Amino acid sequence: MSAVNRAVLASERPRSGVSAYTRRQWGYGFLFLLPWLIGFFAFQLAPILFTIFLSFTDYTGNNEFKAGNFNIIGLANYKSLLVDPLALPSMGVTLKFALIGIPLGLIVPLFIALLVNSRRLMASSLFRTLFYLPTVIPVVAGTIIFNGVMNAQSGWLNLVLKGLGIADPPRWFTDPTWAGPALNLLTVWAVGNAFVILLAGLQSVPTELYEAATVDGAGPITRFFYITVPMISPVIFYNVTIGVILAFQFFVPALLIGGVSGNPQGSLLFFPMDFYREAFVFGHMGYASVLAVVIFVLTMAATGLIFYFGQRLVYYASGES
Amino acid sequence: MSKQIKLFAVIALLALILAACAPAAAPATEAAPTEAAPTEAAPEETEAAPTEVAATEPAGTEEPTVAPTATFPPPVLTGGEGCDPAATKVTWFVGLGTGSQPNDVEKEKAWVDNYNKSQKEACVLLNVVFNQGQNSYDALRAMVAAGNAPDIVGPVGKAGRASFQGSWADITPLADAAGYDLSNYDPKLLDFTKDEGVLVGIPFALFPSFIFYNKKLFDEAELPYPPHKVGEKYDGKDWNLETFQDLAMKLTVDANGNDATSPDFDPANVTQFGFFEQWTDARGIGSLFGGGIPYDETTKKAVIPDSYVQAWKWYYDGIWKYHFMPNADYQNSDQFGKGNVFSSGNLAMSHVHTWYTCCFDNSALSWDIAVMPEINGKITAKLHGDTFAIMKDSKNQDVAFKVLSDMVVSPELAVIYGGIPAVEADRPAFFAAKDEAAAPNKIDWSVTEEMLKYPDLPNHEAWLPNLAQSNTLLGSFRTLMDTTPDLNLDDAIAKLKDDLDAAYAAAP
Predict the structure, then answer these.
(1) How far apart are CA B354 and CA A176, in angstroms?
(2) β-strand B152-156 against B270-277: which pairing, if any?
(3) Structure pTM?
(4) Which CATH class for the B76-206+383-444 domain?
(5) Which residues in chain B touch residue A155, judged by CB atoms under 8 angstroms apart?
(6) Model confidence over A207-261: pLDDT tens digits?
(7) Which CATH number fits domain A85-313: 3.40.50.1820, 3.40.50.720, 1.10.3720.10, 1.10.150.120?
(8) How crowded is residue A162: how many other Cβ atoms within 10 Å of its Cβ?
(9) Domain boundary assignment for chain A
(10) Which of B23, B44, B146 sits opposite A156 (nearest CB)?
């Protein structure tokens, strides 16, 4: 290297040891990230921080948010959580929903994906479209349709059940025993996203693995559990993680069907619904913020646990796990 | 394996086609009218007339309950076209009660345009958020929190105002400053427009309740129509609870054509009901047997009035024992209008307020109105009264009051919202407009004025501590009655009392 080149490089190298070139690259990188960062700070981080702040106030939401219209009340809202008679039952509703919904939201789309992935299925692209179709229907519209479909008196589901000889089919949305499972069924209707992701996962499994296993005498069940499942385990892991997060946030169909009280008899009073009605029906913004923080913490904790334990079960072809 | 997959494909395809072509209803005795589904709604359990509701199934039992539409109109905000440049801008928010249906919005826009051109002081900006449950409440709350509170909100009832407790301006000093004479109004009406002792509006429109009845179903059953005058007999009998229930049972018909008085009647396959207490909460039902308030001012505790207990027991038996009223499953079925039961054409009688004319095809259905029966020796017709209120955060309260005082005497607005004008002289024009909408039906509107004489006192929308929460409990209690076949009603009432006590105790 000539003395001149050394001098140029030395002039571009700051005292910190980072070259001007590197700094320029960082600058460009930051510039390209900026739109996302602005969005993240303005619409994600700031509301989260603001919610945490609100949880220490007695703000009602009935006045403009400005000094004088609320007081800092320390941990009083957090103490209220301990004596809230609905906090635990509503968390129970959410957990019950999650316990049924997460496995269902994985098994059903996986089953459909396996069928649609079959080479023997005619018009597989038509079925891909049909199974994905419900996903593009707005959740409000879908819920209203299902409310009619599952009406105990005139819904076609019960008409079919009666036709099959079940004299007293479930009163889906008016019997507290059935209302929760009915919502689980409703969510199965829109498994299109999970289905498409799982189908993509299935299609990426190398066929030579199946061929080799078949030559070795492995049957379809063995191939499924020893080849398919491990090979698509990252996709399954992703779906489970998303499923847990969505289960903790599940809210809109329950509100549309059960109203803000989660009728019948509170069987649809999900934890986020409890938060929603405290905030927007009763005007207890401060306490509602506590509930929002609880949802946030629980979701984070559940996701963390899934990552901690779940990652060990995931097989990455690149050898990461 | 190949055959199995093909079979699965065929079954799946059939299921999808079936889902797409879901049957509309079980056989009905009468084709449902093709009226437009009502669209507006108050949030569940916040009984405010005239409002409708988004919630669909169990919530569909609470006031006012209409199956939501899958899509709803975007918010409307007019730009003050035609205003005088120097005029003060006054935002009028519509969404907590009636008035956000698309056909109402056009009329409201026309009123605003005319008003803005008629004077130079105020420039009214109309802001309508379609009321599909809670969304309009959320929108208003966001506006208030952001410091953009509208100046005028309405029409809004007591329950709608309760959701924004403490947000309303006291009208009295504004009226004094404007030299507005409030003594022209009946003091009872002024009291009715007070929240926690503060006058928050000027009496605008009254919504008495009465019996809407389907003439066609009476004709089919060859039964005489119910009385239009207090004191009239029905088929030679006193128009009392016993007569009323007997009539309602005769008008309740199953799929085999048996009525509810028949031993062969099948309650699992009802195609026509005799009566429905439409779009109200437990207090509204309780007031059938006389006005009351579930609160004792002295002890600050919940006290369930005897009249409420009796009414609730009668109502519950009407659904589950005598079957002349629909349970929640029937109410929300396709056959019974998905919550808007009277509009389905399969309900003979419904007890609702004047504002219900908003929510069914007034000219397609063959209908009229009748007086309430006498119960426990008295007649009670629960009353709603809506008004326009000024928000405390309004920056132009004086000009807003000027607009508000013009709104409450506007006959055009009274007609839009179906409320009988608080000023008697304005009523003939109001009824003439309603006649036009109901033609070819000839409605006996004298019933409405007759029923104004029998309001529920105390009113079923009267203030309670922690009103939003208390109303939620009372709304849920009705849903409980509508959805639970083997309910121990005494225990349920005791639990309601305990829950109300807790809500009252938690009042700010």
Answers:
(1) 34
(2) unpaired
(3) 0.82
(4) alpha beta
(5) 22, 333
(6) 999 999 999 999 999 999 999 999 999 999 999 999 999 999 999 999 999 999 9
(7) 1.10.3720.10
(8) 13
(9) 12-76, 85-313
(10) B23
